Amino acid sequence: MFGYHGKLLNVNLTTGEINDLPVPEQIAKDYLGGCGLSAHLIYPFVKAGMDPFGGDNPLVFAVGPYVGTPIPMVSRSSVCGVSPQTGYWGEATTGGIFPFRLKASGYDGIFITGKAQKPVYLAVIDGKAELRDASHLWGKDSYATQEILKKEINERGLSVSCIGKGGENLVKFAGVMNDEGRAAGRTGLGALMGSKKLKAVAVTGTKTVPVADEAKLREMSRQIREIMISRRASMMEYGTLGYMETGHVFGDTPSRYFTRGAFPVHRVSATAFRRNYTIETYACFGCPTMCGRHLKHFSKKLDSIDGPEYETAGVFGPLSWNFDTDSIVLANHFCNLHGIDTISAGVTIAYAMYLSEQGVLTEKKAGMKIEWGDGKTILKLLDLIVKREGIGDLLAEGTLGLARALGADPETVAAVKGLEVPMHDPRSTTGMALTYATGSRGACHLRGDYYTVDLGVRVPEYGIAPFDRFKAEGKAVMVAKHQNFKDLYDSITMCKFANATPTQMADLLNAVTGWSTTPADLLTIGERSMNIKRAISNKLGVNRSHDHMPRITIAPVPEGSTAGKSPDMDTLLKEYYEVRRWDWDTGKPKKEKLVELGLADVASDLWQ
Ligand code: SF4
Question: How many DSSP H helices and E strands does the chain contain?
Answer without folding.
Answer: 26, 17
